[in-house]
Amino acid sequence: MSFTSFLFIICILNFNQFLKAENLGVYIVYVDPAESDDLETFYDSFLPTTSNVTSNSDDQPRILYRYRHVFSGFAAKLSAADVEAMRQKKGFISAQPERMLQLHTTHSPNFLGLNQNTGLWKKSNYGKGVIIGMVDSAVATSHPSFSGAGMPPPPAKWKGVCDSFGKPPCNNKLIG
C-alpha cells in the first residue's frame, strides 16, 4: 500500500468520526424525584448508554452538577438527540439549554422590568425599608455599586452587626 493510499484511508476514517461526533451543550434537566428512591442512579439513568462523541470528550464526566435542593435534576453535557431520547423516559420533566446572562448589580430595577411610577414597583414603596439578606464571601466592598453614599441608615429594627473581616467597613448600603 502506498503512503498516499494510507493517508487517504486515515482521512476517510477521521472524517467518518467527525460525522458521528455530535455537538454537546450544557443542559439543565429537571426530573420527578418521586420516580426513584436513589436519586444518583436515577439521574445517571437519563444519560445515553453509548456515546457518539469523540474520544477526548468521553474522558470528561457528562453530569456536571446534581441538584438536590429546591428542585431535582442535574446539569449535563448533552446533544440535542440525547435530550430527545430523555423525553421518552419516565420521570423526565424538562431540559433547558444553559444560558449565560449578564450580571446587573447596579441596575436591578431595569433588569427586573420595574419602571418608575408604575405598577408593583410604585405600590411597594420602591423597596424602602426592605432588607435583602445575602451571604457572599466574594463581595468587593470597594466597588462603587456597594457605596453607601445617599443611602439612609439601616432601619431601627435591624439587629445585625457589621463584621468586615479586615476589609473596608460596612456602610449604609452594605450592612452586617
UniProtKB/TrEMBL annotation:
Belongs to the peptidase S8 family. Keywords: Signal. Pfam families: Inhibitor_I9. Gene3D superfamilies: Peptidase S8 propeptide/proteinase inhibitor I9, Peptidase S8/S53 domain. The keyword Nucleotide-binding does not apply. It comes from the Eukaryota. GO terms for biological process: proteolysis. It comes from Erythranthe guttata. Coiled coil: none annotated. PANTHER family: PROPROTEIN CONVERTASE SUBTILISIN/KEXIN. This is Inhibitor I9 domain-containing protein. Residues 1-21 form the signal peptide. GO terms for molecular function: serine-type endopeptidase activity. Residues 26-104 form the Inhibitor I9 domain. InterPro entries: Peptidase_S8/S53_dom_sf (IPR036852), S8pro/Inhibitor_I9 (IPR010259), S8pro/Inhibitor_I9_sf (IPR037045), SBT (IPR045051).
